[in-house]
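Continuing the series of single-chain predictions for the mutant panel. This is the parent chain; the variants come on the following pages.
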Amino acid sequence: MKFQHYLFIIFIIIFFGCNNKPAKPIEPNIIPKPLFQKIEKGVFILDENTSIDSYGDFQNVANFLKSYFSETYNFKLPSNKSNH
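Parent structure:
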């Protein structure tokens, strides 16, 4: 009797565990929303060769980002000032 219960439970687990639903596409969290997005495998690594380039009104944004990484992760990003 117990064997039949265990067999039934295993059958239910296997039946509901096999899921062939396609993965929901990842919605971009970017404004403005891009017309096309292709997600591939890979990573973006911040290291000593990564710098922030900015000019004009975006200098405040670059300074905020540099400050955030410095205070939160103790990681200093160099900046390349541009004369655009």
